[in-house]
Write a structure and sequence with these properties.
The chain is α/β, with parallel strands linked by helices. About 35% of the residues lie in helices and about 20% in strands. The model has no long low-confidence stretch (mean pLDDT about 95).
Length: about 450
């Protein structure tokens, strides 16, 4: 994993190249104020202050500076320096004339992220280091960048190397670093206590057997929060098998678990005043003679009987048992992350996680937090009128509606049945994947909604 702590460090007067932040509105004034050699150098590089452009300009002696174009020099964004950070020469850089890097430091660090685990000749590391006059800000931003990189690494890892056991190892590593309690429930204990997690994962080989992974941390006197993440390490669709095109990205179906683990890491590193409970139901939805079937009726941990309308709607089943367990300890808040429905992507595309919440004040804080940190999401309705779409003729509820309408809403309504009444709950249906590269955001696994959730927790539990 990338070590972001070396990329954004305290300014102690190190020798560094100055970064001049320019937008189109200020370009002419900036250009006319340059010494003649620098002004002459800007022209051939076609630098006009446009966002993501940059130019290297001569300074005194053998020194040189950099002009970086941004959309608005007075309002830096997380990604406004990312394109420059991807292409600048190795070295140390200092912002000139605009104070501190602020949120742009995140994109600076993440622009240097690489997933090269499977490359025999990875690209050589060329660190571009950014300086800050606020060491405490550096620590916060490094943790956030590191958490984002953790999500990317976990999601990018192929399913053969990121099964339920490896996902448990990743959680245990984070738990040990924070001194948190860690436990895994599997085998007969899982089948008896978490029957839907067990049923979904039972078709996998013994080496990839299902399990519930848990982590607990913090003072029990503090408000209890539960973070739940869907950990379907590969989803074939089960007996309702996906086509080849549908399986191609299914290594990312544990993206919810990756987000949940990264958020838990942020909570513990910042020592947020909460009692944290992380729950990750980890399974592979495989195909074998022992696979659960369409038409089966599963008994959930909550005691509700669930008719299986579609074995490819398995994520909500494992989440239901985990949400039930989370609610048993009466948390002040439950947040879950899941790559749950294609319907959410049809509605909102790859960049916008769908936010569902049973509490308007929680949704408002979440939305404001998302806007504040430029990590967008969109609230969707828990429209109770669609609950009839999940009716079963023989059981308490069906896991998939027959109509195909409102798939993201009905999935959220299914989950809501397993959240205790009166417990504030937010559900993020996230894609966890970037289909096309943008500056600082390569194609592949991505944290979408993580920073918004973290900011929400900071505001709710100051």
């Amino acid at each position: 994993m990338i070590d972001c702590s070396t990329l954004y460090v305290a300014d102690r007067g190190q020798d560094a190249h100055d970064l001049h932040i320019i937008d189109k509105a200020g370009f002419d004034a900036w250009l006319h104020g340059l010494p003649a050699p620098a002004r002459a150098a800007a022209g051939p590089q076609r630098f006009r202050g446009a966002a993501s452009d940059f130019a290297i300009l001569p300074g005194e002696g053998d020194r040189w500076t950099v002009a970086v174009g941004v959309a608005d020099a007075s309002a830096l964004t997380p990604w406004c320096l990312a394109a420059a950070a991807e292409r600048l020469p190795e070295g140390v850089y200092r912002m000139a004339g605009v104070g501190d890097p602020g949120p742009s430091a995140l994109g600076w660090m993440l622009a240097q992220y690489r997933f090269d685990r499977y490359r025999s000749s990875p690209d050589p590391v060329r660190d571009r280091v950014l300086l800050t006059r606020q060491p405490s800000h550096a620590a916060d931003m490094v943790r956030l960048a590191q958490a984002t990189a953790l999500v990317r690494d976990l999601v990018n890892t192929p399913a053969a190397d990121m099964g339920p056991a490896e996902l448990a190892d990743a959680v245990e590593k984070v738990a040990k670093a924070a001194g948190a309690a860690f436990r895994v429930t599997g085998g007969d204990s899982l089948a008896q206590g978490y029957p839907m997690i067990s049923a979904v994962g039972r078709a996998a080989t013994p080496a990839r057997a299902p399990r519930l992974i848990e982590l607990e941390w913090g003072d029990p006197a503090n408000p209890r929060i539960a973070i739940v993440g869907k950990g379907v390490c590969f989803d074939s669709g089960g007996l309702d098998i996906k086509p080849a095109s549908g399986m191609l990205l299914m290594k990312k179906d544990m993206g919810g678990a990756a987000h949940a683990l990264a958020l838990a890491q942020l909570v513990m590193q910042a020592r947020l005043p909460v009692r944290l409970h992380l729950l990750i139901p980890a399974v592979e939805n495989a195909i074998s003679a022992d696979a659960f079937r369409p038409g089966d009726v599963l008994t959930s941990r909550a005691g509700l009987h669930v008719e299986i309308g579609n074995t490819d709607a398995e994520g909500r089943l494992v989440l239901a048992d985990a949400l039930t367990r989370a609610g048993e300890d009466k948390p002040a808040l439950i947040v879950d992350f899941a790559t749950l429905t294609g319907a959410a992507r049809v509605a909102l595309g790859p960049d916008l996680p769908a936010l569902f919440a049973n509490d308007d004040s929680l949704a408002a804080v979440f939305g404001a937090a998302a806007e504040g940190v430029a990590d967008p999401l969109w609230r969707m309705p828990l429209w109770s009128g669609y609950a009839d779409m999940l009716k079963s003729g023989i059981a308490d509820i069906n896991n998939a509606g027959e109509s195909g309408f409102a798939g993201a809403v009905t999935a959220a309504l299914f989950l809501q049945r397993f959240v205790p009444a009166g417990t504030p709950w937010a559900h993020l249906d996230t894609f966890a994947w970037r289909p096309a590269a943008k500056p600082g955001r390569p194609k592949g696994g991505e944290a979408l909604g993580l920073r918004a959730a973290w900011e929400m927790l900071l505001r709710r539990f100051p």
